[in-house]
Structures are given as structure tokens and as C-alpha cells.
Amino acid sequence: MGDRLDEVFDQNRGRQYDDTIKFSSVAMRMAEIALGTLKNRNQAYRKYEQELQTSVVAYYGKLNRTEPSISEAVVRYSAGQASQLLDQLGFQPWEVLPGYRCFSIDGNHLQKTEKRLKETRGLCAAPLPGTTVARFDHQTGLFDQAYLLEDAHAQESMVLDRVLEDLSKNDLVIVDRHFCIVRFLMRLAARCGFFVIRQHGRLHGQLLGKRRRRGRIDSGIVYEQTLKICDGDETLVVRRITVELDEPTRDGDTTIHILSNVEDASACELADLYRQRWEIENAFHVLTMTQNCEMKSNCHPRCALFLFCMAMLAYNCRQVLLAALYAEHAQEDVEAMSQYQVALDIVLPMGGMLTAIDESEWSELTPQDGHGIAKFLRRVSRHVDVASYRKSVRGPKHPPPQRKRCKAGTHVSTHRLLQDRKQRC
Predict the structure, then answer these.
(1) Edge-to-edge strands of the sheet including 171-175?
(2) Which of 115, 140, 137, 141 is nearest to 126 (CA)?
(3) Chain-centre distance of CA 23, in angstroms?
(4) Which terminus of the chain has a lower count of CB atoms within 10 Å, N or C?
């Protein structure tokens, strides 16, 4: 694994070099932090100081100067390797919409950091280390592209030119209204690409014809009308699909408008397809809940973005493990597994295993080719008791009771409240 990461570094580096410390050495340490076996960079350095054979200043400097192009390449590399293993496992890609490869694109603003940098210590405002715009492949469930923005105040739409370069004919992107930019839609359509995107309030066009009811989906009634949008002398005619929602969104919207240039799908199919965008939101949620994808002590933008990309690499590895479980167990049993419990069982014994077994011994214990790794994963998956990882099912949530002020002040004794309950019973 280390040699392959060093190859990724050599192929994508700019000004950075690795004469003092190998890229794979710091990358593997960051992977352990992302998984949760190590808490922070200092703990990683103390544990592997003999292996790193460099000063702590050089170690931190290597991390803080990791170029975004290298971090992005790590995500691409992990997706490519994971896709090959999915093929070896006999995984059948999900067909989201027949005839199209469907991707979701969304941004994730990294959380505020501590004010460790000299320039931030006197500020009241919270320092933000950057933004990650990720592409999620719905066919495989993998993060296959990452577009990094070191400037946290930069618009996510700044990466759209790069997004277009990575799309092929008959690729379909499912995105939220933040990416609803006329020029992007026109350039995508010109490249024989397709989109399903929520209309932004700033995008105005000319409605053509009458609005017609097309049916109903789980969330509401679906209507369709034609919309012509313009960018200078260029025009594009798209389908405008309106969903009158049964319940308002968390922003209070009762109606949403979806734009698409897909012609061979019904309005109800496209309205349901837009809801697939939540898959990337769920993936971000898994990263946040089961991994250390963000750390408040990572103040340098490049280091913070690098850690997030290593967490996406770990997420892609997780998808391979799930594919191995799907190959040996019933789909409904695997889907009922708690992702948190799975992540916990990976992390808890990992520290001891890494201490007891060094990298050379790992190479002897595990196969090195894709076919051998897939066979190994399936053999191990047969012995996994998936029922023991079942999610805890809770009842429906109830609205909170109306609060009342206490006569005695701002505190109450829980013991006295329980005693009062016994007396009432």
C-alpha cells in the first residue's frame, strides 16, 4: 500500500518533494487518525517516531504542505482500487436510471478550528480551514472525485469547470440548487451530459405551454412544464418538474422545482431521482459519525483537507467490506447493520493488531492481487455474525413538552423529582 501511495504522490505532486520523509509514511498515519485508532498528529508522531526518522517539525511541515492535487489524487486512486475489488467480489452496480451513469455532487464546509495559528489568536471570528466538493458515484456507492478549496469563503461553483472535464457522454449529475448556474447547464448539455437539478430562485426563464399534472410520488403531486433559459444569445429548453409537497421542507418550502434535460424518463421518475441526492448527504453523515474526518486542531487548510480525503479513502474501503458482506449474507440483513457498531469493532482491536503485526507480516498474511483479496474478504465475511450488528430501533419521536419555570430558581434536584413521582404513584 505504501509503495502505491508514493506512486500517486510522484505522479501528482507539484513543488512538494519527499527526500526527508516519504509521503506514504505520513499518509498512513493520517489514515489511522481518520479511522480513530490515533487521536491526533502528535500521538501519531510519538508512536511512529522511530519509523518516521525525522523531526516533529519536518513531520508537521510535510502534513501542512500537502498539495490539494495530491489529496484529490488519493481519492481517485482509492475509488479505482475499490471498483476493481467490487468487480472481483461479483458486485452488481445499482442501476439508478437505465442508460445513464448517475453522480451526485455536493460540498462540505469543514468545521471551525482552534485558534492555534498566530494570525487567528486575536480574532473573535471562527477560522475555517476549507471546503471539499465531492462527487459520489451512485452505481458503486463510492466517492470517486474530490475538488478541494483552500479558501473556505470561495464559492463551490468555482469547481464546475473541473467537474465538466471529468464527465463523459450520458453522465447524469444530480445536484442541489447551489449549482444551478445557466452556463454550467448549457455547457453540460453541449457535452452530451444530463442533469437533474433543483431550480435556484435567481434563475429565471420563460415558461412555455401549460403546466400539466403527471402523477404522484411519496412526497407529493408532480407537475411538468417547459422552461426556456438564456445565456446571452444561447438558449436551452429544459423540463421544469414541480412537486407540490405534502409536508414542507426543513426550510419551509411547500413547492420545489426541478430542471432536467433528460427526455426518456417520466416526470415522476425524475422527481424520485432527485431524492437520490440524499445518498451523498448520508455518506457525509457516515464520515462524520464513524470517522475522524475533521479535527479542530488541524488549523492548516491543506492538512485539514488531506485528513478529509483520507477519511473518504476509508469510506471507499468500507464500501468494499459491505460488498463482501452482501456476497455472503442476505441483503436485508446487511442493510440492517449499524454503521457505528461496525466502525467501532474495526477501531477497537486495530491498535493492538498494528502493534503486534508489522507491515511486512501483513503482506505475508494477506493476498496482494485483486482476486486473492476478494477471495480473502469473502472467506472472512462468512464468519461475520451480521445479526449482532443490527441497528437499535426506537419508537416514533414525540414533540417535547411545554417548558415551565421553576419557583426555586434555575436548578432542580433530580432525586426530589423522582421521590415526588413515587408519592404520586
Answers:
(1) 142-149, 131-137, 101-109, 171-175, 194-198, 255-260, 234-245, 220-231, 206-217
(2) 115
(3) 24
(4) C
For 44, the grid coordinates are 501519531
What are the tens digits of pLDDT across the range 309-356? 999 999 999 999 999 999 899 888 888 888 888 888 877 766 666 666
Mapped onto helix, strand or coil, the DSSP state of residue 408 is coil
How far is residue 172 CA from its own chain's centroid?
Answer: 18
Contacts 24+ apart (CB under 8 A), 119-127: 120/299, 127/299
**Ordered domains of the chain (ranges, CATH):** 2-67+292-389 (no CATH), 68-281 (3.90.350.10)
Please answer whether residues 110 and 152 qualify as being in contact, where contact means their C-beta atoms are separated by less than 8 angstroms: yes
Q: What is the pTM of this model?
A: 0.88
Query: Closest by alpha carbon to 238, among 207, 276, 269?
Result: 207
User: Residue 122: its pLDDT value, please?
Assistant: 87
Q: Are 152 and 107 in contact (CB under 8 A)?
A: no
> What is the b/e burial string over 385-412, where b = at least 16 CB atoms within 10 angstroms of the residue's CB?
ebeebeeeeeeeeeeeeeeeeeeeeeee
d(CA 67, CA 65): 6
Q: Model confidence over 264-273: pLDDT tens digits?
A: 999 999 999 9
